Amino acid sequence: MKHPTLGLAIVGLGASMAPLDIAVNVALPAITGHFRLALGDVQWLVICYVLVYGSLMLVCGKLGDLLGHRLIFRTGMLISAVGCAACAAAPDWPLFLWARAGQGIGTALAISCTPALATSLFPESARTRALAGLGMAMSLASVIGPFLGGILVELWGWPAVYWVRVPIALLTLALSGLLPSPKPDPRPFDAVGAVLLAVCMSALLLSLVLSQRSEAPALPVLALFITSLAVLFAYIQRARRVPEPIIRPALFADPAFAVPNVMAVLASGAGFSILLLTPYYLVNVLKLSAVLSGAVLALSFVGSLAGAPLSAWLVARIGQRPTAFAGIAVIGLGLLPLAFTGADTPVLLVALLLIAQGVGHGVLNVAYTDIVTSTLSIRDRGVAGSLSLLTRTVGTVSGASVLTALHAAGAAGLSGIDGFLAGYRYAFLAASGGVLVALVLSLAVPRAWSRRG
């Protein structure tokens, strides 16, 4: 493009559709009341969305590599617009869930190609800066999401959190015609491998989600997890035989590639403790209002917004792998003091810790995506970008399951505020300590964090 910054803004606007979904969390009570749901049932609103886009992410990235990233991105924007409108207008709960699944398809198509589109707008020497710009757009949307959701629900009711994204998607669709459109790649598409990979991810994510629900029988959850491993094995066997698999399993045989991916999952899982547990700490322990609690939580994403350009600056000076290592270390060190907070902890201190760990996520996300992008070939940029986004999803879903169990274990035998705080401290101590210990152990892997990688 003649004006790549304009192109990056268009891609960033489309990428914001995913983090803006945080606004839905604010609308959950209103949605529960409108459809007359039990508290446990409303969780399927989140589950079906995450299952769909998480299971399709890698497949959509591959389609972008073969058919053109702009085409897949634009298709995703159109489906997202239709899906959001259908959610807002759904007359009953089953149709709402079908619309929510359609929205997940649109999200998978659109955001899987955003890293590839962003890097295609700039010369290869500016790749990290392009990824930082994309990261800043997504962090900004995460900051805006909760505030926007609260205002929309207050003024126009819960459907507004979906209606507001329809013009955003359509505007992005219209502007995306300005983005470059490469010719389709004649490489074959492995449809069978795509199905295997989608089934594997669906079974894995569903098993992780259901493991959080006390009413879910343990045997079916275990069966789903075993199924995901069996299907993964089948995919690996097939990928070794076909000339063009969705993603090559041999990549993960190299510890220098596997270790950053594993650590990215662990860091995302640990970081999810902020969204999962800290809202209850702010409201029930520190006695903050809902509005003030939302503002304090948003500081974590403000930190991510600041960490993205810092990451690009660090990568240019010390390399992508040391920068990713530093980001993970900051996340762990930022979460660790939160394990020792209580009712007397100053709000300002909590805010500073949230900003610090947010900076760590901003630094990590850009540097880690840069590692994955530079490892895969240029013609597989869609797969690279979707992999970097998928690890965050897997980390978040698995983190929710583990953190819920940790909190319950820490609060065992106690009740009320004392029980919550005991579980809160135990969960944060285990999450932060686990990440830091894993990071130290990963130093034993040759080339995992060296500058040249």
Structure, described:
By secondary structure, this protein is mainly alpha-helical. The protein has helices at residues 4-15, 23-35, 43-67, 69-89, 93-112, 114-120, 127-156, 160-163, 165-175, 191-210, 218-239, 255-271, 273-285, 290-318, 320-335, 347-375, 381-410, 416-442. Helix 12 runs antiparallel to helix 18. The radius of gyration is 21 Å and the shape is globular. The two termini are 31 Å apart. The model has no long low-confidence stretch (mean pLDDT 89).
The global form is globular
- The structure class reads mainly alpha
In what range is the share of β-strand residues? under 5%
- Percent helix among the residues? over 70%
Number of helices: 18
User: Sheet with the most strands?
Assistant: none
The Cα radius of gyration reads 21 Å
Q: What is the residue-averaged pLDDT? A: 89
The sequence of SSEs as H and E is HHHHHHHHHHHHHHHHHH
Number of strands: 0
- Pick out the low-confidence regions: none
Head-to-tail CA distance between termini: 31 Å
